Give the backbone structure.
Amino acid sequence: MRTRATSTGSALGGLILLLLLVLAPTAGARATGVSDAAAALKQGPVYVDPGAAGQISTADAKALAQKIKDADKPLFVAVLPANAQFPPEDLFQNLRTQTGITGLYAIRLGDGFDARADRSVMSRDAVNNLVTSVRQPGADAATELNNFVDQALPVMRGSAPASWGTAGTNDSGVPVAGLVTLGAVVVAGGAGAYAVVRRNRLRKEAEERAALDRLRVVVDEDITAFGEELERLDFHPAERGADDAMRGDYERALDSYDRAKSLMGAVTRPHEVRGVTQALEDGRFSLAALAARRESRPLPERRPPCFFDPRHGPSTTDRTWSPPAGSAREVPVCAADAARLDDGLDPVARTVDTDSGRRPYWEAGPAYGPWAGGYFGGGMLPGLLVGTMLGSMLSTPAYASEYGGGDFQDFQGGDFSGADFSSGDFGSSDFGGGGDFGGGGF
């Protein structure tokens, strides 16, 4: 069995070999293919091939690179000539393989433009929408690329690779590295490996803390609201007419309330919040059953909570609903929201804090994923949220592994993954002349 030391040594050896390749002298060389573009992108976010130097000025390329570095995101931009050295077929997959870093890859090939991304960084639909929104036949490279970068940076996940900023770039975009001794490379390799691991760990911890801070506010509000429902119920186990079934419903509701408070008090990571909202959903159904028994009504069907606000309690029916600029879908709703929709009114939506103010939870970021997942379940939620901001996050393995509480695992943006990635994310593109190209399709 391979020991941990052997495994670490192999990983370090691979990193050293990678550093040797990256730091190999390139002064005076002219890029001639995908391997040169990949080597350049390991050292900086923007590569302009000498054969495409007329498409974008050196100043514009440097400004674009600085914008990406300042945002600390794994966004790679390549400006390439449409010639035999860069065949469109499998261009994205080949560039991603040789660069070996998870991220969002945008390529301006001749007059064509397209992009691909690892799903841990951005979903397929999001990439497709971004490319379509900036695609303008005849647009110059600087305008098109800046528009794409400006829209992509705020919504993509991950951080820039640690290898950026370790070497300068010359005017052609080909990295220039100083000559170093083998011993220096070995030292740098060990330090670099530690720096990458530490940086990724600190980044992940910071993201989780920020997500958990937002979740605590929302979940505490829900727990408080459920406690107030219990008080308004004013049920006494010994009251006239109470039977064992009613007392059982009431006991289960109290247990759910206590369990939700206990679980929330022990939460240390975002995905653990899912258990809290599951407990609250169980408790609200118990209260609905108790209310039906006290009023001699038929027991309610076990249904998911109201889509628009789980605090409304279990849904009673389904209604067709469309988010802004989204397609129609059936969602579970409470009786009050069903009546509002039937009257042409807006439902009463659960809003949460976002960077742009209070918004419906489905228009918020991934931090609210486990909150919604606990109420609706991981299998049901993607269909309800398709085409919304939160819904786009559900398709990424990074979301599922932490925010959604699933079992998926994947590299985070900016990590070295080599050729170990989903080739389907970087499938063939249909670059064409004059802006007639694939538009981000996978």
About this structure: Residues 68 and 439 are 22 Å apart (CA to CA). The radius of gyration is 27 Å. The first strand starts at residue 46 and ends at 48.
